[in-house]
Specification:
Layout: H1 16-26, H2 31-48, H3 54-71, H4 76-95, H5 106-112, H6 117-128, H7 134-157, H8 175-219, H9 232-247, H10 249-256, H11 266-271, H12 290-295, H13 297-302, H14 306-321, H15 326-342, H16 350-353, H17 366-374, H18 381-391, H19 398-412, H20 433-449, H21 473-482, H22 525-534, H23 542-547, H24 559-568
GO molecular function: endonuclease activity
Protein name: Ribosomal biogenesis protein LAS1L
GO biological process, one term: maturation of 5.8S rRNA
Length: about 575
């Protein structure tokens, strides 16, 4: 028995050290460290996107309440509302994600997760009753932070087995519900098996009747002429097939594309006096033998609804994309070609119209059809694509069609008329990697030959295969002069960058604060907006209002100032 492999996934933190430092700051009790930790959590949420673990979301909400509480700037009622929202979100995130199809009491779910009942009662009072006191809110917040630290943060740190906190689809189902679902799935599989069996029986009965008709035509030497009308037995079978299609259309389509039905076997072809040798068929322009097409003609006349034709065409393309044998690929592409041919807008004689498997034109989803055709590359793909492009109600531009067909022919290595790669204009040279390297080397030599510092006999080194940039001493000195005064410099070492993940540089320590600058200032835009909102509306001279502002706050940033800052930025 193979050992269970450890599940690996991408995380938002840089290293274990960053995780440990963040956990320590969250539970430090100091507002400055907790604020810094909240900023790091905001960065994590930006990296996680919509898959942020719910435990991280809940921790950030609860710690933010403690930080705002420690400032002393909010009233008690405001703090109760903040705590209440954080507590309610915790219960919704952590507890209700364990609900099954049948709703269970939150107290029962909380007891399974070692959450006391008074937490659920606190949330219930927040949403349905009188607001609790601030003391109970603070107590609930402290308990939930400790619970999250024990159940999520510490277990992650110790490398224990962790539930998928980022998913809300995990449900604790009781044994009865699991067994009921298992029974439903088993019954569904059984119905599908019985449906496939019935579909094959109906199609085999259809083939048996048609082979009898063909033997009768052979006795009369009329096998190449029109086939007679359906007999009473064949009519009854066709009625059964039509009824089955109305109930289980997908199952019937799955059975039809199997070997022995729309994809004939060698024995079936020989029974219809068709040579099964693949040498007689052109894989570039597939077409069905006329006898084999007439063999299935009665069934197509019964199942010629637009929905059925659309679904079987999609199924044929899907089978073609997964097909490896040339025999199946040929007949699948031949049926696709026949369907597209019957749907053609070209007006034909009535006699030919009667020999089509369906007459009424169907409006396909042409963009999806082109995508399905290109996703199933085979020798006949350019031919099928040409049929689709010719039949589109809103055709693509001629240049787009030509380029698409040419690319398709190049990919499938087939020759289809004007779209063949051999017909490319000879005036456009064909570049190879070797020719481009020689051309680059020649241009470099010519440039050095015409330079004043060029000395005869100085050979040019061949281009290096290393991706590292080879810089001359003058270039390094030039770039360092530009970077003078900044903490950056030009790296001239041979560094194997492929061994370093994105976001890390050579020699970087594991300390998460290694990239922080020594001195920095922060600008809180939210505080400035609040101060602007608190200024009363002007009733007279606006200069008096500006003079009443405290000088310690400093001037506000204007759009002109921001434009000047942007214009002065330089990126290296």
């Amino acid at each position: 028995m193979k050992p269970k492999q450890k599940l690996r996934h991408v995380v938002a933190w840089m290293s274990r050290a960053e995780w440990e430092q963040l956990l320590e700051n969250l539970h430090s009790g100091q507002a400055a460290l907790q604020t810094h930790a909240l900023h790091r959590l905001s960065a994590w949420r930006g990296r996680f996107g919509n898959s942020t673990p719910v435990a991280v979301e809940s921790t950030a909400d609860l710690v933010r309440c403690q930080v705002l509480d420690s400032t002393g700037k909010l009233e008690g009622d405001d703090l109760v509302l903040l705590y209440g929202m954080a507590l309610t979100r915790f219960v919704n995130f952590i507890l209700e994600r364990h609900q099954g199809r049948v709703a269970k009491p939150l107290r029962r779910l909380a007891s399974k997760l070692n959450i006391p009942e008074w937490i659920v009662n606190l949330r219930h009072a927040m949403t349905h009753r009188k607001l609790p006191s601030l003391k109970w809110c603070r107590k609930g917040c402290e308990f939930l932070l400790n619970w999250l630290r024990q159940e999520y943060w510490s277990r992650q740190l110790n490398g224990g087995l962790i539930e998928d906190w980022s998913s809300s689809s995990d449900e604790e189902e009781d044994e009865g519900e699991r067994s009921r679902r298992h029974e439903e799935e088993r019954a569904k599989r059984q119905r599908e098996i019985e449906g496939h069996k019935k579909a094959r029986e109906l199609l085999i009965s259809y083939e048996r009747e048609q082979f009898q008709v063909y033997e009768e035509l052979l006795r009369r030497s009329a096998e190449h002429g029109p086939w007679p009308e359906a007999s009473a037995d064949l009519g009854w079978i066709l009625a059964q097939i039509k009824h089955f299609s109305s109930e289980s259309r997908d199952i019937l389509i799955d059975a039809l594309v199997q070997d022995g039905f729309l994809i004939p076997t060698a024995e079936q072809l020989e029974s219809l006096d068709i040579d099964p040798s693949e040498d007689l068929f052109d894989p570039l322009t597939p077409s069905l033998p006329q006898v084999f097409l007439r063999f299935w003609f009665p069934m197509w006349k019964v199942l010629n609804s637009p929905l059925f034709v659309t679904l079987i065409l999609e199924k044929l393309f899907a089978e073609l994309s997964n097909e490896m044998t040339s025999h199946r690929a040929y007949y699948i592409s031949a049926w696709i070609s026949e369907i597209l041919h019957c749907n053609s807008r070209i007006i034909r004689r009535v006699k030919i119209m009667k020999e089509r498997i369906f007459v009424s034109r169907i409006s396909f989803q042409w963009q999806d059809l082109i995508t399905a055709c290109l996703n199933a590359p085979c020798p006949a793909t350019p031919y099928l694509l040409q049929q689709i492009l010719n039949d589109m109600e809103m055709p693509l531009p001629p240049a787009t069609q030509h380029n698409l067909l040419r690319l398709c022919s190049i990919y499938t290595q087939t020759n289809h008329g004007d779209c063949s790669p051999s017909n490319i204009d000879s005036s456009h040279p064909v570049y190879t990697l070797e020719s481009l390297q020689e051309r680059l080397q020649g241009s470099t030599q010519n440039r050095h030959a015409h330079s004043p510092n060029h000395t005869p006999g100085s050979g040019q080194a061949p281009p290096s295969l290393d991706l590292q940039e080879n810089l001359s001493a003058e270039t390094v000195q030039e770039r360092n002069a530009v970077l003078r005064g900044s903490p950056w410099s030009v790296c001239t070492d041979k560094v194997p960058w492929k061994l370093h993940p994105l976001g890390k540089v050579s020699g970087q320590s594991e300390d998460p604060s290694c990239l922080l600058v020594e001195t920095y200032t922060t600008l809180t835009v939210f505080d400035q907006q609040v101060e602007l909102d608190q200024i009363p509306p002007p009733h007279g001279n606006t200069s008096g209002l500006l003079q009443t502002r405290s000088g310690s706050d400093g001037p506000l940033w204007t759009h002109n100032d921001i434009s000047k800052l942007k214009a002065g930025l330089k990126l290296f």
